[in-house]
């Protein structure tokens, strides 16, 4: 009989952590809900819970064009941007077809395969985000291994993409039931402001863009402000850089 340290114990700990994460994500759906922070958290927990090395989320703007919304790290963001620039890879295909793209040979997209390899990734997968039958984006998953993504990880990735959709629905309720296209565009506009502030803070402090984002997010959470509000403060100079770094 296997003890807690064996495979059974490992599985139980993983299941417990999955339960914890879903509770934590549900707890973020409060009045101060910040959709950009929420989606970044979702990308990070995707890496924690799934057998993947990086993750990201893309949403369609009001014209139906995919945009990068959140990434677990800078390398994943670069690869997501490459997918959009070249309009090839698992995420654009997933968005076009509405079907999950998993365990597919990357050589079907030669340019993307080369870019993925240059970034250290050997496989990539995408799961659609659906809202009332409409595909509104996709969850990207990147791995350094060519081993197939396990069935349980595929199922969990679908659950995480559903959580992303729930978060977007929650924001929509707080914004007066605005039409879906406007709501998604608002989220994307918030991300643009945050990306600009992240770059400015990185330049001022010498931090990496990823670390600059972490500093802004920690400050936002610690002060109860929205991430986009903190980003506006960085951009217009009303938020002192030293206050961010010493929080």
From TrEMBL:
Keywords in alphabetical order: Kinase, Transcription, Transcription regulation, Transferase
ANTAR domain span: 174-235
One Pfam family of this chain: ANTAR
GO molecular function: kinase activity; RNA binding
Official protein name in the record: ANTAR domain-containing protein
Source superkingdom: Bacteria
Entry-linked PROSITE patterns: ANTAR
InterPro entries: ANTAR, CheY-like_superfamily, GAF, GAF-like_dom_sf, GAF_ANTAR, WH-like_DNA-bd_sf
């Amino acid at each position: 009989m296997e003890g807690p340290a064996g495979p059974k114990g490992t599985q139980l700990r993983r299941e417990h952590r999955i339960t914890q994460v879903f509770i934590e994500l549900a707890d973020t759906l409060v009045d101060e809900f910040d959709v950009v922070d929420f989606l970044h958290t979702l990308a990070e927990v995707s890496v924690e819970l799934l057998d993947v090395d990086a993750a990201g989320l893309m949403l369609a703007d009001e014209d139906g064009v995919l945009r990068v919304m959140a990434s677990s790290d800078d390398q994943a963001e670069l690869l997501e941007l490459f997918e959009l620039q070249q309009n090839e890879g698992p995420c654009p295909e997933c968005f076009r077809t509405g079907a999950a793209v998993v365990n597919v040979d990357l050589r079907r997209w030669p340019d993307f395969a080369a870019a993925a390899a240059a970034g250290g990734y050997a496989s990539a997968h995408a799961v659609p985000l659906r809202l009332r039958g409409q595909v509104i984006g996709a969850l990207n998953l990147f791995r350094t291994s060519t081993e197939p993504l396990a069935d349980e990880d595929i199922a969990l990735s679908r659950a995480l993409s559903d959580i992303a959709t729930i978060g977007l629905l929650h924001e929509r309720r707080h914004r007066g039931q605005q039409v879906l296209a406007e709501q998604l565009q608002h989220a994307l506009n918030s991300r643009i402001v945050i990306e600009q502030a992240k770059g400015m803070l990185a330049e001022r402090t010498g931090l990496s863009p990823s670390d600059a984002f972490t500093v802004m997010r920690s400050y936002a959470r610690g002060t109860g402000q929205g991430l986009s509000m903190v980003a506006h403060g960085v951009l217009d100079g009303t938020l002192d850089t030293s206050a961010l770094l010493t929080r």
